[in-house]
Amino acid sequence: MLRLETVVVIDTTHATPSPFETTWPLKDNLSPVPLNVGALLAERGGVYIKQYGPGTLATPSINGGSASQTAVLWNGIPIQNAMLGLTDLALLPLHGASTLALEQVGNSVTHGSGAVSGSISLDSDPPEVGWHTRLGTSVGSFGHQQQQAEASWANEQHGASLSMQHLAADNDFPYRIREDLPERQQSNAAIQLTSIRQSYFSQKGIHRLSFHGWQQWANRQIPPLTTQQRSVAEQNDKGFRHVLHWRKTGNKAVWDTRLAHIQDQIHYADSLAGIDAPSRFSQLFGQAIRRRVTSKWSWMTGGQVTRATAETTNYSAPQVQWQAGIFSDYTRRMRIGDMVLGARVTHLVGTGWIPAFHWQFTKMAGSWHITLRAGHDFRIPGLNDLYWIPGGNPDLRPETAWSQQAGISRQTAYKRMNWHWNIAVFNRQTNHWIQWAQLEGQNFFSATNVGQVRSRGATLQVKWNWQVSKAVVSASMMANHTIATYQQEIRRPYFPKGAQLLYTPEWLANASVAYRRKQWQCRYTHRYSGAVEGINESLADWQLATLALAWSIPLRQHSLTLQATADNIWNTSYRVVERRPMPGRSYQINLFFYFTQIKFPQQ
Amino acid sequence: MKNTLLLLLMVNLFNSLASQTQADFENFNIISPDIYLNNAPWGSFDAGNISLPNTYDAAFDYWTGWAISAATDTETPGFTNQYASIVGSGVEGSPNYAVTYASPSSQLLFTNHATGATGFYVTNSTYAYRSMLNGDAFAKQFGGETGDDPDFFLLTIKGFTDAVETASMVEIYLADYRFADNTQDYLLSEWTYVDLTPLGTGLDGLNFYLTSSDNGAFGMNTPAYFCMDNFTTVDLTPTDDRNQEARILSAYPNPATNQCTIPLPANALGGNLVVRNSLGSVVYTSMVSNTALQTIDVTAWSSGLYFFIYTLPGQTPYTGAIQRL
Questions:
Q1: What is the pLDDT, as a whole number, of residue B244?
Q2: What is the DSSP string of A261-297?
Q3: What residues in B contact A230, CB-CB < 8 Å?
Q4: Could you report the predicted ipTM of this complex, rounded to two decimals?
Q5: Which of A59, A251, A465, B86 has the most CB atoms in a 10 Å sphere around its CB?
Q6: pTM summary value
Q7: Which residues of A touch B215 (CB under 8 A)?
């Protein structure tokens, strides 16, 4: 057996990525991967994640958008809960997935409803040829423990993978309200998450059939607020998602057909208050897309049908929502650059037709990459907004948004150093913004189209790496400035005209430095969130730092990887959501243990 | 002499207020703690000489204004227990009482001959009490994270005539955590009498406002509920027409320490004699059938002013006052 040394390859010829998109590979065995999508985006994504506590509800705000204005896709299928209109990113574990992509631009033409401020895509690639197994376990502070097992097999024709994860944590961390007050301990915050994903691929010539299944069970206790003596509330989430994807690669075009079934069950219970609130949502999804690419143009056309059903004791009856849409995206490659025109029209039964379209111009000149984009996107109201009793409003109109973006990026290389920087600016005006509000003469809050919200801002990203002998030093920095304001006064809840949206920081930044040599890696990440306004009080800005160490030991064709992560190493006392303490003034150290076994097929 | 003048002044005042009617909500006759009335068929719950407006949305099973309850659960926190008083009953263990959801305010209308009120009993709802005591998912525990927040839950009552509020008002703290010494902080957990005489008479009704120190962008976080019982109105009866002579009885000795005799009209036996203290509580009641001289033992009464009313079916009542030294 010949042992090869690890070689770091840096791709400098790859086209500069879009200034609005970021992709993270998740199959790097050396780097510690955060627990879930929310944690990864919070740490590295430049996205504000409104997180209620470790393992609890986490929702994104991209460029001043609301959580429900972010499309979340899994293998091309939108998986937002149509009742809530959003996705809990804490319930999207990263195991079993190949890549996570963040698109910080509206794209309803491609993704449909909800892709107003951006989209998050979690995708699984076909497994590599051969047998691969990976076993992992981790332990950490506050009762954190995790077991993970992955296995995959593939030959040139077929492949299958299975990934299982069990996660448990007590989250009984100590915290202080004030230095002179006694220490408290978080209670009723334990979480249990079990997730199983499987994928099967069958490739025969021009056809590829793939199936993805994802079953998930989560039980999360709802911890008390700092202004609450006790909580016994808990929430059980069950998710079942299945996607069948058929791809036909012809001589002139590629066909993609997807059928999906998604089911979410949420059961909230608080025995203290006598609340028992089960809800159930399921969605059938069908989509067909044809792509044709030539040297001068590419053209994508498709159609999509969705049937969502939901029932809860807070609806007068089970609700059904039908929507169907057709869409097309045409790209023309010209001497001056690439021009993209896209359009979609969606028919929402009971509401009518909802249009979406975008225009994009991209110019690549040497190491420069310039993109201009304008679009019109939409979000269909969540079923709770429409039918919840009391307050649901069946007459709600979809949110629509006009947006303009511009981005410029450049990637350069000098000797053994590589630079990549990227500046993007955006402006978006959202009409018919949906907000629960109390109208004049009304005694309860109801879902209402309150008016316009305007979001504008800029994002700067800089990446640098330097290869020194057998080591690579890399650094990255991201800063985001977002102003998202109501364009008119709202009476109740009271927001004056020009007020920044709640839980939308004006400033967001992160920076990281990493050193990688052979099988060692050390990474320091620092992030900053500006102050935000909460419902009841203002929250101060905060800074957090994470230090991660990794060591991989080759064992013949196997490998053993040890990872250790220390979160919040400067003991910052902070809150992301008001009255919700986060682990502070206490060290949190995680240890990850991985074992990889690789078997190649007999030659 | 001074006491006598005071007594005469009070008697005249009482006479000008004329008779009183108490709304104790027992006319709804709810006997099960699991039953509540949150949907008034005619838009209001009427008891005594008051009308409590109620709106009910059948589509949402949602109500505002007033409800009538016999709930006894003083332990369960949260919205599901919104109809219970923290006492677990009405005043003095009576089963029925009124609950209001004052979002942002609630209203009481005087009916029949009522033009004002002497007072009523108030206490917290279990929902609001438990929320303030322990906090919940929306509202803070009073005192806040440190226990030192100067929190309060205040009920403000104003009278109105022709839809215009009068200047005077009455305030009562349903919870008060503003004391420097936290041991003095309190949540109202008993039926407490509220004197409404400062509001005067000649009113069409009362407005009730709840304010709290716990507010957010969506308004007040503290559950906007309180409970009411034994609401006593001041009524203008036909004999109170200014052209008619007032029917006043003079008790003796007055002031009194041991016994006091009320000389009833000899030709008006068969009525009901009721004596109330200044808070409106009944301290003596008697069906008069055989003697015109009613002698009452006042030894057990605490010092203060007491009002009596002698009512006969179909007749204008007789009124008077006793001062217990």
A1: 42
A2: EEEEEEEEEETTTTEEEEEEEEEEEEEEEEEEE-SSE
A3: 134
A4: 0.83
A5: B86
A6: 0.82
A7: 536
